[in-house]
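ok trying this again, last paste got cut off
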Amino acid sequence: MTETLPLTGERTAPGIWHENYWFARHEAAYRWIADTLRPDGRVLDAGCGEGYGAELLRAGGAQQVFGLDYEGTTLRHAAKAYPQVNLVQGNLVQTGFAGASFDTVVSLQTIEHLWEQPRFVAECARILAPGATLVLTTPNTLTFPPGNWYHTKELTAAELTELVRADLEIVDVLGLWHGPRLTAWEAVNGSCVTAQLEGDHLEWSEDLTELVTQTSYEDFEIRQGALDDSLDLVVVARARPGDVR
């Protein structure tokens, strides 16, 4: 599925063994949305990347799912891999969709890549129907390893909440953490993220290789807690009733 999609380091994709931890960490958020929020109606995955997340939302019961991304090669791959997702090439801060046209907008691990973050949130608010839901996830800059040059601005929980609150009503702010299996491994071996980044994957220890290849979305928890300690941040917000732009 990923053979024709270049691996740039900017996005994650299924089927790459040494990227499996990061893929599962992303997948956990999509599955949480599908299983907990159960979006139906018209859903937009803003910054859909490879497309697996939009497909998960469609398979989870959404009536109609759109995937929006800027990069043409990625969209051509997604069109072949997930033909039932409606794919659109466009700019996240000026989508071209009509106002109030979506019942749910999700954008996972995307906002940290954008230069115009407030404009993006305002655009999400514009295309949401009154009372509709926005879900954003992003790495917590307080715990995320520094130096990712694809990220223009990483955020704390307080910064993300303030950013979203300017245009939408905050429903919940949650964090993503390692579950019991990953936590137990780290109690013995130290940070699994640090271990992955310290050297080439071909030089990983047998224990680390086994951990990464066996990690699944079920190894992560999305819940309330001390958000400054979380790995990723999850904001659920709602378009204000009557706020049609």
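PB: full thing came through this time. Residues 113 and 152 are 5 Å apart (CA to CA).
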